[in-house]
Amino acid sequence: MDWKNHEDFNTPWLMAFAAGGLVLALCGTVLLYFRWPKKRRKPKAL
After folding, report:
1. Which of 13, 18, 33, 39 has the most CB atoms within 10 Å of its CB?
2. Rounded to an integer, what distance in angstroms lies between the CA atom of residue 18 and that of residue 34?
């Protein structure tokens, strides 16, 4: 943070990479949820 000149350091590049990182993290979380092994019941023998 620039305390001396109070310049805005939030450049479009920084904001774009931050948004991209957030999107990738959310996609990774969704993929992890769908790939997580679910408890499967064995079919009952008749």
Report:
1. 18
2. 25
